[in-house]
Amino acid sequence: MSTSIYDANDPALESWVESANDPASDFPIQNLPFGRFRREDDSSWCVGVAIGDQVLDLRRTGLIESADINRLIRLRPDTRQALRQALSDGLRKGGSRRAGFQAALVPQQDVTLGVPCDIRDYTDFYVGIHHATAIGQQFRPDNPLLPNYKWVPIGYHGRASTIVPSGTAFHRPVGQTRAPDAAEPAVGPSARLDIELELGIVIGRPNAMGVPIGIGEAEDHVFGVTLFNDWSARDIQGWEYQPLGPFLSKNFASTISPWMVTLDALEPFRKALVRPEGDPKPLPYLDSPANNARGAFDIQLEVVLQTPTMAAAGHAGDVISRSNFADAAYWTIAQLVAHHTVNGCALQAGDLFGSGTLSGPQPGQAGSLLELTFGGKQPLKLSNGETRTYLQDGDTIVLKGYCERAGFRRIGLGECRGTVMAARA
Question: Average pLDDT in the 24-34 region?
């Protein structure tokens, strides 16, 4: 760990931005996630850093010259760490740059937060082994995991144009489905609209086409992580996915949280990669001692469901699932980067990887309604007496994520919020 990472993560640090010192804050001085915002009187996007309940406008601090965040996320690790150190120095109590930084602050409640960077391409992976097993058991009880699952990180290319920022409402998708007892398919609104609890992994530094990224350098190409909800129309998916996989069932909307939490901020929350006894050893391009020892990240995840009735009553919603990235993911971030480029694929700054649904091993840790309700057969009972098998119009889903470990300051990923509207006529 470099000196700059260690100093900026010092749990004893406090900020002169008092809201950042609240133990419950997602954005203490030890976090400093990056994103984009715009003021009410200005339509242009600015590069911001979250600190407590404020946003720091980076251009107004003089630390950067360009408002192009995709240019910033391309920084080499040492340059990125130096920027983070300068931010930490300026925001900590006793910092010499307080006056200049204070003038660059704006309350988060007074700005619009957007997609954290320009997303160029989007790949959705399938790293959640408990999710893959649970779904496989519904369709292939005797062989839930296909033979390649423990050898190759499974993924497919998605659609970047319909990735929307947290807080965006979207229409229920319309598509083609076929009922089990129907002779022909029909077109109509999805009746089995689902969630997918995921992390988003944002690529920073690109690679040249034809030049694979080795696993030892893979994390140098990652800027940070976000929360990500890859909404899924299960009935459309069931009819269309063979032989090429998901299509219209996935690309109508995906919601991303506004802040990219850097791997530098996540450094204290690393864990060893643990594989079940007897599982195959990864092929050499996916294997390294460093990745095995500290390639996983201990990130707690939650899913909150708020129905329209709850919203009208002032009820924030029920937590319907809790899981952990390290426990759910069979493959690490570094392995995803190495595999994505082993064939020479060129990544760009702003490419997004979805982790796939991050379900834990227990029933209450499932990251989708498909699992929580056993394919709609066992409705989910909510605290106000309502039930859900799949999402209804007006339902809001909020994903949350945070890291906690003894001896370090709690940091959070903020929230990823989306609301279902009725299908368009």
Answer: 98
Burial (CB < 10 A; 0-12, 13-18, 19+), residue 202, is buried
* Cα–Cα distance measured from residue 164 to residue 161, given in angstroms and rounded to the nearest whole number: 8
Token readout for 341 is 């480029």
The pairing of strands 300-306 and 396-403 is antiparallel
Lookup: tokens for 98 = 């307080």
Q: Residue 3 pLDDT > 50, yes or no?
A: no
Question: Does 221 participate in catalysis according to the annotation?
Answer: no
Per DSSP, the three-state class of 37 is strand
Between CA 203 and CA 219 the distance in angstroms is 9
Domain 3-113 annotated CATH 1.10.357.10: no
What is the CATH T-level fold of the domain 122-421, as seen in this structure? Fumarylacetoacetate hydrolase; domain 2 (3.90.850)
Is residue 419 helix, strand or coil?
A: strand
Which of 131, 221, 339, 340 is labelled catalytic? 131
Indicate whether 59 pLDDT > 60.
yes
What does the alpha-carbon distance between residue 243 and residue 275 come to, in Å, rounded to a whole number?
Answer: 30
pLDDT at 6 exceeding the cut of 80: no
Burial of 245 (0-12, 13-18, 19+ CB in 10 A): middle
Q: Token pair for residue 242? A: 């063979």
